[in-house]
Amino acid sequence: MFLKRQVPLAIVFIVGVIMLLSWFIPHEPFANLEIHATQWFDIIASFAMILGALNLLKLQGRKVIRRQKGWFYSLAAVLGFFLTLTFGFFFKGGYYLEVKDVGPNAPYFNQRVSEITHTEVDAVERAFTKIGEGKPINRNFYTHGGVLKLYNELSSKGAVVEIKQLPWGSHLQERGTFYSWIFYSIFTPLTSTMFALLAFFVASASYRAFKIRNLEATILLAAGIIIMIGRVPLGAYLTGWLPSWLQWLHLPRLQEWIYQYPNAAGARAIMIGIGLGIVGTSLRVILGIEKSFMGEK
Q: CA-CA distance, 59 to 61, in Å (whole number)?
């Protein structure tokens, strides 16, 4: 009981007090505590991600094995997980050519590189005027066969090029890798589809919220209509005829005022409330009043 209750509370109290002191004492040994704590957080978060992945496989795999309702969605989740894992750790792609010399047929080289990189010929010519020890062509290929075709084509015209591959790590961010293909060709369209579907739910929720029931709902309705119409060309068209002394009623200007002042004030008030809530909860945890992190109510 002592190890399960008093020891965790003591650790939380000591660590909390030390972190508070490190904020007000910018000297050793407190100066770099925030950096060390952030690194520890990243390490713990990495293990938490592993546990989350194992839990995902356990839950979704159980649904697939037992053929429960919607098991094919679980199968898609499991397959997508392993596919992303494979392309992230084992097959990266990202082959590219590094140019050592454009060779005697520079116009052909510039035209061909312009076609595959979708840039102007003049820009390619300026980029490869001074090559130095080597300059890469800004186009990555998924397979070695794909880059080998371009390599043979440029080499036959006298250009000196060399096939290289992106290092591990950068293949997660560069285009032309299998991981980026999953992200930009599968994950991004699915995300866009989900948000597109959410638009209908937002419209339905707005219709219910904008019903005039009292003064607050009326103000919300008026502000919502002004912002929605004022942010599209229709707003400027409807109020464009107003004389100069009524320009403050111009819908684009009116919606901008609502967005900059009442909306910003409300958002900042919410952020201040959240900050005070975090301070209060942190003090409750440090002082041992809040014990939900130990499974207690």
A: 6
